[in-house]
């Protein structure tokens, strides 16, 4: 049962993706820094199972699954099904209490077939937009906030500004294309209610503790590098690598989505002028792991000659590491730079800024190695308290 509409439940936030890496950090900001009620959409058979899943997330975040228990309600559903998998009556009740929708759920897989990516990222976004429209009809929607990605820029070369969108770019994978199409859907609703779009770049662990719940994008090549699988890389030393810690992104989303005076802008949550390069990351990782620096070779030469050779001569862990990172090779040769001037100026007023990756990179590597690249489980609460990961055999 939904709570009766009370003073405490008015102006509630409807949040998707709370079991995901960024979504859980956004959840923590609203629980820890506001008094607003959160309705968390989670994939579950019923609300009881959904509550168990959200409680596990809260325990991971805070060390206590019952923390803020009166401030959140789990809603069993699925963005892939009509009506979000929520009955019509309940959906209407929810809509009468919700004034802000933050859509963070998505598939971030680079290897998923395009139609499957579209079902989740485009179709799911459309269904959450439909729910936001119901919120508007039932009592007033203040804003719809969408977590997009800076990589809607696709293979664009040069500067990509916060007002840029369709510049005729191509896409490296189904993830980029489906997120571009999802952003198109959000933009189509901008005339019906206020929308806000957040475009983070590559999200990594927390800058102070190094903690991460997922080891994707940047982590597989770093793991392969530790294993000695990279005597050579298909990369240019000057290629920009724009990474941001998850706590910066969550802080920014909370600040901007929770600001009643914020407009319907697009916000690049990126390192921007503080972005690093492939060359600097390779040098840093080589020093950290005590490995010889790999040779950086033109991508075409690597793909035709070196990669097939390395797959033949490597066995076991090194071969698997090489195969797992093949889908990431195009990101070693990008020529795009993300302009975040508008958002950088706005967040500076709140004392929020994206740190230079070099300032926290060692902590990311330390946590990754200590956790066995995710094999040894550790909660955010434990990491922030300086505990060691628990080993699993």
Structure description:
- This protein is of the alpha/beta class and 393 residues long.
- A 7-stranded parallel beta sheet has the order 3-2-1-4-5-7-12, with helices on both faces. The chain has a two-stranded parallel ribbon with strand order 6-15. A two-stranded parallel sheet has the order 8-11.
- α1 links the parallel β1 and β2.
- The longest helix is centred in the first third of the chain and has 25 residues.
- The radius of gyration is 21 Å and the shape is globular.
Rg for CA atoms: 21 Å
Can you give the helix content as a percent range?
A: 40-55%
Quick one: CATH class of the domain at 12-200? Alpha Beta
Taken as a percent bin, the fraction of beta residues is 5-15%
Output mean pLDDT.
91
CATH overall fold name of the domain at 12-200: Rossmann fold
The helix count comes to 13
């Amino acid at each position: 049962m939904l709570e009766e509409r009370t003073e405490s439940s008015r102006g509630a936030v409807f949040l998707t993706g709370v079991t995901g890496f960024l979504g859980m950090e956004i959840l923590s900001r609203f629980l820890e820094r506001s008094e607003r009620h959160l309705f968390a959409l989670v994939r579950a058979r019923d609300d009881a199972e959904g509550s168990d899943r959200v409680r596990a997330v809260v325990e991971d975040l805070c060390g206590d699954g019952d923390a803020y228990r009166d401030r959140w309600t789990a809603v069993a559903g699925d963005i892939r099904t009509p009506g979000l998998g929520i009955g019509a009556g309940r959906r209407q009740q929810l809509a009468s209490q919700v004034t802000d929708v933050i859509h963070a759920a998505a598939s971030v897989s680079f290897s998923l077939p395009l139609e499957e990516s579209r079902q989740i990222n485009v179709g799911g976004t459309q269904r959450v937009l439909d729910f936001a429209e119901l919120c508007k009809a039932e009592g007033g929607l203040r804003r719809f906030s969408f977590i997009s990605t800076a990589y809607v820029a696709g293979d664009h070369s040069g500067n990509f500004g916060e007002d840029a969108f369709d510049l005729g770019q191509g896409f490296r994978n189904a993830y980029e294309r489906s997120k571009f199409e999802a952003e198109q859907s959000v933009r189509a609703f901008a005339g019906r209610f206020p929308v806000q779009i957040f475009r983070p770049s590559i999200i990594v662990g927390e800058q102070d503790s190094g903690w991460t719940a997922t080891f994707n994008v940047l982590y597989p090549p770093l793991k392969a590098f530790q294993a000695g699988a990279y005597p050579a890389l298909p990369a240019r030393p000057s290629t920009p690598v724009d990474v941001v810690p998850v706590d910066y992104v969550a802080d920014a989303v909370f600040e901007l989505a929770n600001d009643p005076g914020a407009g319907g802008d697009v916000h690049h949550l990126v390192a921007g002028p503080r972005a690093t390069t492939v060359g600097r990351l390779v040098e840093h990782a080589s020093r950290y792991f005590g490995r010889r620096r790999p040779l950086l070779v033109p991508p075409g030469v690597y793909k035709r000659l070196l990669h097939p050779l390395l797959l033949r001569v490597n066995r076991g862990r090194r071969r698997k590491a090489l195969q797992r990172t093949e889908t990431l090779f195009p990101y070693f040769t990008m020529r795009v730079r993300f302009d975040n001037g508008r958002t950088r100026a706005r967040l500076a007023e709140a004392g929020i800024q994206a740190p230079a990756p070099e300032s926290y990179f060692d902590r990311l590597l330390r946590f990754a190695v200590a956790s066995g690249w995710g094999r040894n489980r550790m909660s955010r609460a434990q990491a922030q308290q300086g505990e060691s990961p628990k080993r699993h055999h």
